[in-house]
Design a protein that fits this description.
Helix 2 (32-41) runs parallel beside helix 10. By secondary structure, this protein is an alpha/beta fold. The chain has a single domain (9-213), classed as Aldolase class I (TIM Barrel), CATH 3.20.20. The strands form 3 sheets. A 4-stranded parallel beta sheet has the order 3-2-1-9. It has a 3-stranded parallel beta sheet with strand order 6-7-8. It is built from 10 helices and 9 strands.
């Protein structure tokens, strides 16, 4: 079943099973496949390639072709044109740092799973007005962290909203978010840093992925 926010029950279940999305900034297409394999070796099978680098969509295509077991989403979707390009390239889902009603409307028109960003109750209500039920809480720590999310979520707790916090999360604080029932998964940019990717430090990335998976499995 597909909700108005575009997320199927199957995709939501994958997010809940993984509990973490590795958020990645990839500068070279040739790094995309070994990066995906390094993360899979560490037990992480969902990633978000950000459109902060110009080769993100090329990286998406390469990973989908050569590492099909990896679930690949795209982040930093700011325009309708980007949204369409991402859907055409085969992304499993998309996210944005903020709420753009034109982008949300287009995502629904083309049945593309899309989570807009929110940071205030007004953002949440704007998203709800458009039928969104999966929201990115960004920038999580700068917006007050888990304490803020709990306070904001309280009036909407009966509406079955799922959140993906991102921004300021790290190995030391991400578990507290996952212990909150409204959080389906967290965005983990610390797992594979841009410099580590450019340096092809796959062992370090796999080690951090393993550590994240061990912590999640300990919950």
């Amino acid at each position: 079943m597909i909700s108005t926010s575009g997320f199927s029950a199957e995709l939501l279940e994958e997010l809940h099973r993984s509990r973490v999305i590795a958020v990645l900034m990839v500068d070279n297409v040739c790094d995309a496949v070994p990066l995906a394999r390094a993360l899979l070796d560490g037990g992480i099978n969902i990633i978000e390639l950000t459109l902060r680098t110009p080769i993100a969509i090329e990286a998406l295509i390469e990973i989908r072709r050569k590492v099909p077991e990896m679930i690949v989403g795209i982040g930093t979707i700011l325009t309708v044109e980007q949204l369409v390009a991402v859907k055409t390239a085969g992304a499993a889902f998309g996210v944005a740092p903020g709420f753009n009603p034109r982008v949300v409307t287009k995502a629904q028109e083309i049945s593309f799973p899309f989570a807009p960003g929110i940071c205030t109750p007004s953002d949440i209500e704007a998203a709800l007005e458009r039928g969104c039920r999966v929201l990115k809480f960004f920038p999580a720590e700068a917006c007050g962290g888990l304490k803020s999310l709990k306070a904001m979520q309280a009036p909407y707790a009966h509406l079955d909203i799922s959140y993906i916090p991102l921004g300021g999360l790290d190995q030391d604080n991400f578990l507290q978010y996952l212990q909150y029932p409204a959080v389906v998964a967290v965005g983990g940019s610390w797992i594979a840093m841009r410099g580590e990717i450019s340096a092809n430090d796959w062992k370090a990335i796999t080690a951090k992925a393993i550590k994240a998976r061990e912590l999640i499995d300990s919950l």
